[in-house]
Amino acid sequence: MTDIAFKSAKSLAAMVRAKKIGCTELLMHFLDRVERFNPSLNAIIQTDIPRAKKRARAADRALAKGDIWGPLHGVPMTVKESHDVAGLPSTWGVPAMRKNIAAEDSLAVKRWLGAGVTLFGKTNVPLLLADSQSWNEIYGSTNNPWNLDMVPGGSSGGASAALASGMTGIEMGSDIASSIRNPAHFCGLFGHKPTFGICPPRGHALGGAVAMADISVIGPLGRSAGDVALGLSIIAGPDEIDAKGIKLQLPAPAKKSFADYKIGIIYSDPTAPVDREVQSLIQELAKFLRGQKVRIDEKARPDIKMDDIHRTFDILLRAATSGRMDDAGYERLLRQAQRLRPGDDSVKARGLRGATMRHRDMLKLNEARHQMRWKWHEYFQDFDLLLCPVMCTAAFPHDHKPSYDRLSTINGKKYPAMMETFWAGYTGLTYLPSTVAPIGLTKAGLPVGVQIVAPQYGDRTSLHFAGLLERHYRAFQPPPGFE
């Protein structure tokens, strides 16, 4: 019998409301699993058990009086380490930030607590959230529950490993270059990268920064499409300042069933070739969807050169993250950028130019980005959604070399590992929302997901389609050995 820890957060909340299980009892059940399984996974790296137990007991007392705090009353939760939780460190994996204790909860954490969760810990990340694996010198390396020799993804890798192994009820990550999407893909979960700007990130920044970083978003991960849809509804909406004049109203999905949808599908691209097994699983999904009367077009694309998207994303990504560097680090990269040959357009050269470029150059690239944004808008006049890969491969073995020095093996050939960011930037550069849903396993038993891309502010449509896939194609499945 499958452990109740693998139920969706919505199902757990329903059990609590029906008094089939108490809030304290449910928390203790998850904590027992953490004690059993976290030593081999190293997913949950900070906890505040006394405070969590106190809150769970208060939730039980409230429920006894008929007082429901919110839709996730009593559901145990962890959050990605980079989100501020009062009294716990926010290090982003940076050794010098070991003693950076948050003074208050981030805005999103406050909203989760307002929805009734019992927050009990934080999950692992890579250094500065800048990798597709989750390893840093403070907390070590997190393993994938489907195969401990493999990475769980990054930068929300601890979150994905904790969810997939049934050690937490729901999670919150962040995403600038697939940091929600690739962990969901690598661990067989649902994840949602929201439309840029709809989920205020206040309290998700080093050094107390309050400006919203370009491209970067925060968003939910869960074991069901319904969980991530609920999570989005909890954390989305303007902050205290913007709420004075802005109201978020995401359109409801206009479609009801598979047969109502017209979608495009991409299996691979020469700019970022995709492993044949991953392509095959997306092709199997397409075959199923045709059987459900979905109208599918495998050739239609936005009128944008793939190379142009990739190059623009590479540079703007590094520009967006350059503020995380200290002055010495910036000066070091500036010297390296000044030594670049004029014709060097390698991924590393793009990164150096992006991290150190002039504001005028950034404005020109931003204009190019917005030209692309309108091309996507034109595409979505004819299509409801686009399905494409999340990453070029399934989860890969642990490799702690810097990203620029790593290689990925795809269909027997070696490629720079940083090429993996292509499928993140293809949609993320232009602010589009994407939902990841699990669609199968490789021959080696590793999960594969599909990226469901919607037009800007079409978050509820991609989530609706993910829910249809969950009900009619493939739902979350626990990894062997953790049931």
Largest sheet: 8 strands, mixed
Shape: globular
- Radius of gyration, Cα only, in angstroms? 21 Å
- How many strands appear in the DSSP assignment? 15
Tell me roughly what share of residues is in helical segments.
25-40%
Question: Can you write the helix and strand succession as a string?
Answer: HHEHEHEEEHEHEEHEHEHHHHEEEHEEH
Please give the order of strands in the largest beta sheet: 6-8-7-14-15-11-9-10
Keywords:
single chain, 483 residues, Amidase signature (AS) enzymes, 14% strand
Q: How would you describe the overall organization of this protein?
A:
With 483 residues, the protein is an alpha+beta fold. Among the domains are: 4-256, Amidase signature (AS) enzymes (Alpha-Beta Complex), CATH 3.90.1300.10; 306-373, no CATH class. 36% of the residues lie in helices and 14% in strands. It is built from 14 helices and 15 strands. It has helices at 9-17, 23-41, 49-64, 107-114, 157-164, 181-187, 225-235, 276-291, 306-321, 327-338, 347-356, 359-379, 422-428, 459-472, and strands at 44-47, 76-80, 118-123, 135-136, 140-141, 171-175, 190-193, 217-222, 262-265, 295-297, 385-389, 407-410, 413-416, 434-441, 447-453. An 8-stranded mixed sheet has the order 6-8-7-14-15-11-9-10, sandwiched between helices. Strands 1-3-2 form a 3-stranded mixed sheet. Helix 7 runs antiparallel to helix 14 (459-472). The longest helix is centred in the C-terminal third of the chain and has 21 residues, at 359-379. The chain is globular, with a radius of gyration of 21 Å. The mean pLDDT is 96.
